[in-house]
Write a structure and sequence with these properties.
The chain is an all-alpha fold and 56 residues long. It has one domain. It is built from two helices and no strands.
């Protein structure tokens, strides 16, 4: 994988993880579990993108 692709995946992973955490914490505090579940899925997807970027 090219370095540019790795950087794009890493940046996308970090953005996804940060946005997911920013959505999950308030949703859990307000007991909106449907939104919180979506945000947690976003966090996991971001972590997977980061793992792919640093794994290759």
């Amino acid at each position: 994988m090219k370095k540019t692709q790795k950087n794009i995946l890493a940046v996308a992973g970090v953005i996804s993880t940060v946005l997911g955490i920013m959505g999950a914490v308030p949703a859990f505090l307000q007991e909106k579990f449907g939104i919180a579940t979506g945000a947690v899925i976003l966090v996991v997807a971001g972590l997977v993108l980061i793992a792919i970027a640093f794994g290759d």
